[in-house]
């Protein structure tokens, strides 16, 4: 549930502005959210590599290595977050040069960016915290943290945007405040967690060990490239939708909130997979690896089927809850079946991501992301000229299938690298 914050924050933002604002305001949230998806998800390697390395170190019983992984991730998160604040002007300029929205939408999206960016250091540092909690299988702490962040964000959205009428500015400000409160709460959780674990003295020289940092940066670069291509896929989807008008842009954004919420649920199983397969690798236990993959996969598939069915049958009600704009509702209903199919077929990509993250097979993830994006781009260029937004959604569904296929063909080789023991650990 570590990635719950991003989709649920977006869901809350969309619901409030969708019922209190205009089509242009909802479109502005769509473009603004896209920018921060790029900015934040580009640094998703902080969360992913931390989870993999922490799980492997904990599985091997190396307490000092666990603390070193956390320390390096926190240092990097803080550094990158401050860097984003210092570079906000060129980021702002590049983002709005690339995006294609109406003048009114872009004007409001710029306001959103100017306020939301101040939460960047907190958001990135929290990646290190959530990655550690996942790696150590502290699901209750993680759930408590997400409930706090999202509950506060919803309250601030309603108060600032709804009650005070601050609109897009209030949405962005509320989200930034929630991110900072989340960082403080997560830090307190880690202090309590490590206070109760075996005491080890952190060697600051080891924290900046050249060899360790070289391996960490190599894995992070692979994940960064993978994430950039993944984000490029979502950006292409959003930007192509914007070409069909503000209503289509807003409708696609609303449907993506349903997709993102479903992804949040499926991510829970993927994160369990990350921790368990990472632990299996640390213990050199192929039996544990196989059981972790099988059990989490079965649960994830069942959940994906239920989520897809829920969206197919009740998605219209969810859309009406998110927005009272009649034209957006009508457009969303038209493409709702594609969102339901996407959710069903996305389970393979999520589960395989979890396996490859937990075992830190980052090069394979990088290569798969590049190949699947190329396939998505080709599909959309062929289909959208003839079928417009319908063709775009078909291409988008094909994209998530390609993501799974490109990783799936590499699974036998990955499994073969996991050590085998006669006596495997129990889940």
Count of extended strands = 0
Report the order of strands and helices. HHHHHHHHHHHHHHHHH
| Distance between the amino and carboxyl termini | 19 Å
Strand content: under 5%
Q: Overall pLDDT, averaged?
A: 84
Main beta sheet, described?
none
SS-based class: mainly alpha
Q: How many helix segments? A: 17
Oligomerization category of the chains in this entry? single chain
Could you characterize what this model shows?
This protein is globular. It has helices spanning 5-20, 23-41, 45-59, 63-86, 88-98, 103-116, 120-135, 139-163, 167-195, 204-207, 210-242, 246-283, 286-322, 326-345, 347-358, 362-408, 411-417. 86% of the residues lie in helices and 0% in strands. The protein has one domain. Residues 421-427 have low confidence and may be disordered. The protein contains 17 helices and no strands.
Question: What layout of secondary structure does this protein have?
Answer:
Elements: H1 5-20, H2 23-41, H3 45-59, H4 63-86, H5 88-98, H6 103-116, H7 120-135, H8 139-163, H9 167-195, H10 204-207, H11 210-242, H12 246-283, H13 286-322, H14 326-345, H15 347-358, H16 362-408, H17 411-417
Spell out the key features of this protein.
single chain, 427 residues, mainly alpha, disordered C terminus
Question: Quick gist of this model?
Answer:
The chain has about 425 residues and is mainly alpha-helical. It has helices at about 5-20, 25-40, 45-60, 65-85, 90-100, 105-115, 120-135, 140-165, 165-195, 205, 210-240, 245-285, 285-320, 325-345, 345-360, 360-410, 410-415.
């Amino acid at each position: 549930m570590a990635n719950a914050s991003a989709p649920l924050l977006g869901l809350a933002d969309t619901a409030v502005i969708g019922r209190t604002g205009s089509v242009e305001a909802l479109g502005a949230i769509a473009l603004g959210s896209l920018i921060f998806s790029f900015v934040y998800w580009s640094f998703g390697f902080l969360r992913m590599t931390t989870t993999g390395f922490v799980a492997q170190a904990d599985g091997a019983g190396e307490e000092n290595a666990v603390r070193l992984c956390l320390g390096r991730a926190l240092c990097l998160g803080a550094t990158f977050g401050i860097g984003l604040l210092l570079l906000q002007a060129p980021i702002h300029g590049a983002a709005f040069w690339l995006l294609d929205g109406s003048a009114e939408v872009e004007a409001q999206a710029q306001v959103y960016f100017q306020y939301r960016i101040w939460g960047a250091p907190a958001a990135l540092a929290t990646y290190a915290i959530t990655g550690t909690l996942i790696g150590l299988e502290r699901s209750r702490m993680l759930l408590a943290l997400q409930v706090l962040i999202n509950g506060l964000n919803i309250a601030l959205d309603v108060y600032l945007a709804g009650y005070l009428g601050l609109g897009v500015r209030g949405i962005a400000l509320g989200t930034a405040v929630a991110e900072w409160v989340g960082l403080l709460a997560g830090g307190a959780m880690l202090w309590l967690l490590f206070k109760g674990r075996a005491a080890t003295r952190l060697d600051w020289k080891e924290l900046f060990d050249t060899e360790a940092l070289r391996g960490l940066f190599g894995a992070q670069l692979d994940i960064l490239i993978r994430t950039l291509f993944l984000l490029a896929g979502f950006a292409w989807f959003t930007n192509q939708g914007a070409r069909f008008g503000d209503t289509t842009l807003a409708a696609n954004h609303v449907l993506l909130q349903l997709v993102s919420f479903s992804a949040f649920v499926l991510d829970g199983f993927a994160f369990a997979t990350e921790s368990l397969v990472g632990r299996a690798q640390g213990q050199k236990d192929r039996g544990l690896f196989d059981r972790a993959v099988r059990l989490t996969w079965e649960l994830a598939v069942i959940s994906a089927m239920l989520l897809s069915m829920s969206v197919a049958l009740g998605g219209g009600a969810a859309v009406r809850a998110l927005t009272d704009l009649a034209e957006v509702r009508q457009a969303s209903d038209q493409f709702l079946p594609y969102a339901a199919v996407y959710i069903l077929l996305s389970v393979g990509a999520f589960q395989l991501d979890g396996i490859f993250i937990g075992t830190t097979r980052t090069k394979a993830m990088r290569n798969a992301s590049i190949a699947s994006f190329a396939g998505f781009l080709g599909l959309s260029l062929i289909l959208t000229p003839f079928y417009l937004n319908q063709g775009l959604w078909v291409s988008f569904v094909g994209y998530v299938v390609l993501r799974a296929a490109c990783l799936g063909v590499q699974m036998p080789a990955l499994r073969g690298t996991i050590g085998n023991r006669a006596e495997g650990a129990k889940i």
